Protein 1
Amino acid sequence: MPIGNNFSGNFSVAVALLFLVGLFICFSSSSISDPISDFLHLTTPPTLLPGDKLQAALEKAAAGNNKTVIIAMVNKAYVEEAEAGRAMLDLFLESFWEGEGTLPLMDHL
């Protein structure tokens, strides 16, 4: 048997084994992932969704033992100045300062 045929046979077996090992590593391990998707995950900063911002605001407003949350809708008419040069929003906020036992509720707006 010539040495050249033996060498080429061993070389083909080695290449085939390396190929199979490479396939095994790529498809069997969940810890080794696609390098392109890893790159995309590293370059994309995490973003807060509107629901996340709302959740954070509600948790902040409902802090402590009292889980009261006061939600007020504000539109253009609510912030426009009325007769005395004051807006409805100013009256709404003043009512928390002047009301009886309402000052602690300012933290829940």
Note: The chain has a mean pLDDT of 73.
Protein 2
Amino acid sequence: MKLIPTLLLLGLLLPAQAARRIGDAQVRMDANGQPCFTISEREEKRSGTPDFQAITVSEGTRVLWHMAMPPDRTFPVSFSMCIPYGGRVTALPQTPALDLGEGKMYLVQFDARPGKNPLTPLRYQAQFCLDAKRRRVSASCRAP
């Protein structure tokens, strides 16, 4: 009978690890009228700049574009920079970027490498929708 309380006590002594939260990504339009992606300013102030690993844009379960860094390379993602849809670095492994249409809900998700700060999320994401004139992005789609 003493075994059960002992096991319960041992379970309480084990270090508890909380699951890392998903960080907030931000979507904005670049000078060419294409969406580009970064972390939110709030995320940068809260947890610092994560090291980029990969980015995926999808519509439902369909991947529209994916780009990843080689294992030996990375760069810090800050609020002041933006990763353009379709990428511009041809040396990086990526899929061709499919066309984005207006009025459709998309999901951008980018993964970060584990860093020194255990509070830094390993994944950031945001939903976005393009307006009819492709001048801005929105977090929700409205019927025309």
Note: Helices lie at 3-13, 41-47.
Protein 3
Amino acid sequence: MLVSTESSAGATPVIPLPNPGEGGPVDSGGGVPVIPLPNPGEGGPVDSGGGVPVIPLPNPGEGGPVSPGSGQTPCYYCAGSPTGLVRFLNAADGYVPFQIFVNNWRVVRQLGYASLTPYGYVTEGFQTVSVVGQDGYVYLQKPVPFRANDTATIAVINTAGGLDLLQIADATCTRPYGMSCLRMANLAWDSDPLDLLLRDGRTVFRDVRFKEVTSVVRVRPGSYAFYIAETEDNPTPRFQDIDTLERAVRLPLRDIELSFTADIPADTTTTIFVLHRRGSDDDDDLETLVVTDA
């Protein structure tokens, strides 16, 4: 029922009250815009009008992990315990950024090329990992085994038949205090076997083929100049640690595909991911992503 009153002046319009359930602010008539409340079920914050951007809440059913805050590990898919740790790497050139899902949970909305997510928890067992385009097109769905207390990187890679997933174990290495560990992963599709050389010409890893991940070698902390090359040299004996040399010590290098530098801190494990250079049609055109984990 509408309730109204008469104005003392007799000529002022009367603003009716809303019907029950209609709610929302009523125009004051003073020329100030009125911000309507959302309809039932719409939800989401309302712009205050103060010029501060409003971040909308997700629509019902969108779901996905929520950041737990600084310094904490997110939960990518936790339907029970125990759990393992996983992160995702986009090593597939030629695509727009991917969405990654674990079962029906979206892990990341936009994973660009040569990008890496932080680690997140996933319940052990076989879980379905989906690689999805921004338009919702499903490029790949694949069951992947997750093991309790294990740590892994799952790389999205190019293959002759399209996309595939490569699961890489990220177990910590045994090293004396103050030393570090180094390994290399060749994720450059259709590349020749590759070597990793030091600036002085010593071979650290030899003939690393596509989808191959080397074992680790111990390395002294410091700044290194590395080369990716194709040689016939044998690697440095495994019992020898990799260390820095005087800048004046240089040996002739050949068949160099790529040069780069890396700073290796103490008590860490560094992985050199070799990728195809984005946008290049040359199979031998490479780039690297150097990742250091404590």
Note: The longest strand covers residues 83-91.
Protein 4
Amino acid sequence: MKPTLKLLLSISILLLFFSCKKENDNNPPSASSGIEWISHADSPSFSMAVAQDIETDASGNIFIVGYADKPVIFGTITMNDFTYGSSFLAKMNPQGQFVWVKDIARSYTPKILLELDSRGNPVICFHYSDLPVNNNLQDILPSTDNNIGLAKFSSDGLHMWSVGGGSTNNGDYPFCMAIDPNDNVFLAGSFFQYTTFQDKTLTEKFAVKGTFIAKFDGGGKCGWIRESNEYNYEHKADYNEAAVYAMACDSKGNCYVSGRYTSQMNFLGYNIETDNMSGFIGRININGNCDWITPQHIVFPTFKSLIVDKDDNLVCGGASAENVQLTGASALFTSNNKLLFSKLSASQNWLWAKEIVETDRAIPEMGSSCNDMDCDLDGNIYFTGNSNGTTRIGINSFNTSSTLEEMIYVAKLSSDGNVLWVRSNNLSDAASASESIAVDGNNNCFIAGYRNRAFSMDDKQLQDGRGVFVAKIKQ
């Protein structure tokens, strides 16, 4: 874009910004053009129905995954066979209409993850203790309790392949997943004593609940499984605290992993220590080896969201800024009511770090959360989460009237971490959560989650109901 056009665009954005602020101080100002549509899938019995992840393809189609406890109506599609802990995969067209829905699995602790491969085919990972008889997966996946399933479907909803893994020890559970440009899938989760995928078995070394990281090729074949675990954990009867929270792949096929540990951790054979509970970020190459991991003996932030931008910089979001620092020589962030965001270059230099979200309540016990992030092709950053109490993002502020309810928000940052716009649902329609975000090639962003009653953003409104919502914010 020419400099003159950039200047005119900037002036237009500023005029729109101040116009929005004057119209409604309770709804944060925005340079986006507004909510284009809000779609929903409701439970007629007002039971739980949640969207846990969302992705969009090059044609503007939207895919969501989630779970429900009873039958749910997806537009013209009614899923009558849903029972407690039923996970699903659904496709929507660019207008927000449901095209098809797949009944995937059953679990008492449902979790389902979603990525799209280079052709726009959905890849899902899910926890299951049982499988519905009408989805063909029960003929492919192991039938023992507490397993992890990995499957790929075509964009039209046709089953392409499935892989089952886990053990009989009730400890297998998926945490997060990422996919690289060559369609290799990286998966992290928990296990107890051992876990098996195809001909690869990982045996836990340190007598505690372990965390595995595995790689699969585009056809579902497991290439390797590695362990990330505490090796000197004082409460060995408890769940292992060396958890993995987020993953993201760069253009070279490396996978970044963020998580936390309490004392001494072995990350794929690399030992690090901390004097207090600490977060970490490590980079794993395509062969399953650790290239590097963040410094030890400091309290590093525990980032809940990771995304890699067009220049292979790693954007990290959603860490509490209480008594943490990025390097031994960097400034100490000390706020317990702020969320920290930062950017790390491919050469491991921190480009910036900013406390972007501020709340009047402590994080993470109350306050605000960053649940998911995405980037557009210009390197701008989008993130979404929930807020409780008074929340400020840049110069934008909003609040809930009840300590028991949460509002949702979505925000856009420039590539250098400056707030461009913020949107939230209307105050009267609290009691909702935004779980995931995706950005398409035209910089439109989509958020998905659940709502417990009537729900509205800008002038778009859903009547009273309980279930899944998906909203499009047009750029």
Note: The chain has a mean pLDDT of 85.
